[in-house]
Amino acid sequence: xxxxxxxxxxxxxxxxxxLIDSYVPLKKQGKExxxxxxxxxxxxxSFKVNEEKQIFHCFGCGENGGIIDFVMEHESISFSDAxxxxxxxxxxxxxxxxxxxxxxxxxxxxxKLTVIVKNVFSKRGESLTNKYDINSKTISELDLGAAxxxxxxxxxxxxxxxxxxxxxxxxxxxxxxxxxSDDMCLVVPLYKTNKQFAGLYVNSPKTxxxxxxxxxxxxxxxxxxxxxxxxxxxxxxxSIIDTIKGYQVGIPNCVGVADTHKKSLTGExxxxxKANEIYYIxxxxxxxxxxxxxxxxxxxxxxxxIIGLKVLITNDKINLPNTVAAYGIxxxxxILSKSNTWYDFIGRELTRSQDTNSEKxxxxxxxxxxxxxxxxxxxxxxPLLLHFVAEALGKCSVDINSIFHLAxxxxxxxxxxxxxxxxxxxxxxxxxxxxxxxxxxxxxKIDSLTALLILESKGVVEQTxxxxxxxxxxxxxxxxxxxxxxxxxxxDNGYINAVDIKKALGEVEYFQVNNCLQEFMLDDWFLADTxxxxxxxxxxxxxxxxxNLINLSPSx
Length: 556
Hints:
This protein is α+β, with helices and mostly antiparallel strands. The chain folds into five domains: about 5-90, Alpha-Beta Complex (DNA Primase, Chain A); about 105-210, DNA primase DNAg catalytic core, N-terminal domain (Alpha-Beta Complex); about 220-340, Dna Topoisomerase Vi A Subunit, Chain: A, domain 2, CATH 3.40.1360; about 355-435; about 435-550, no CATH class. The protein has a six-stranded mixed β-sheet. A hairpin with a 2-residue loop joins strand 1 and strand 2. Helix 3 (about 65-75) crosses helix 4 (about 80-90) and helix 16 runs parallel beside helix 18. Residues about 395-410 and about 545-555 have low confidence and may be disordered.
């Protein structure tokens, strides 16, 4: 377990500006630093970093927190992984505390056994050369291995009951490969974006599978390059084999889908690697292209990660790594130029072999786009993304004007009307919520306490909202308040992020709490005013004398 004192010390030593600037270039603006938010797409910067308060806040999407929160969100990793990452970047040695009888987590034991399996497989890596046309240099650089039903390993595992149980948990039952035909197949070590080992990708001739801690390959992209080159597009190749061969022939920024549970690209994967241009190479015979189009359309419901994606359909005669190997890297731009934007790809696949003049088809497309909007989180880019798709449907139609007006104009008008109706309803809810008085206390004061608790839970400000204080406040204001919900969230999860908070509070309540968090960024007296609210509420309710516990001077 990582020492709490080390975490606090790290927060004090590591500059949030320097850390975030290593991920996103920051620009000084008054007392703060600004940038376009790395967590959502925007053209003007709404992401602000306050060095003195050691906090960041995006006024566009609401993400906020300290150095650990930023790395957790940016790299999609756990709290402890984020601490490890920051420590490594800052040259700090992580301090841990152990009980007298330390008990290893099950996942740690599973990971250690996976490493042992990896080392056994790696010894046979050289045998891959002839079977897969991978040279020795690539095998060595990428630490590739070949699967084997090792009798020695099987004996070691089966002689130890705990190891035998663990082997089943990592999908390597009693030291045996899943299929007899897996012997000598390619095995690729996987790593998360923070370089943490994430198990083995077994390129089984039947169906690829993962050996390692369950779930470690979820949403994972295999990146043999370790570091991606800036200002160059990311190229997602159709298989792990192609990704390795792409690396071997010098294709820059080539990656591959390593999640063995997914058959196509997902929004979660797109979030892992951000770039202005992303090319997804698809082998026509290996992928249901219509289903891929529907999957891509569904991904816009929750995010705009799809922006910048282009899709290139190939066949068995056109293999990108082989073509580059034969004709040189110079042919790459010409090949990529034949790709379609994600929305043109969707339009083409949804209109393929359809009677685009029929009223039935038009009604189906309209319903599909309307359902996508209705089921979305209503993030600000949904209407624009849907409009792109609607226009693409029009371009792919035989009767361009007819389908364009139905799918594009009508959808756009409906989206605008729906947005207006939604905004009016939402505004009404906000007004009703803002006017609430709970136990004689304006709701905004309660939400400011919630904002303070969130900041304290992330270690951004010194703790005032102790368990006792929170319990006493909730006894006054009740369980159906933002404060009570966030307290419960912290008790259940131990650590919270923006997604958890939004889910627990709901859209209106989250918006009001988020406004209070924004006030902390903008108003140096917010902290003092909020702490004064604690004192007034508790004193008026004759619960506890908190005046001596609270420092009312602002944190400036």
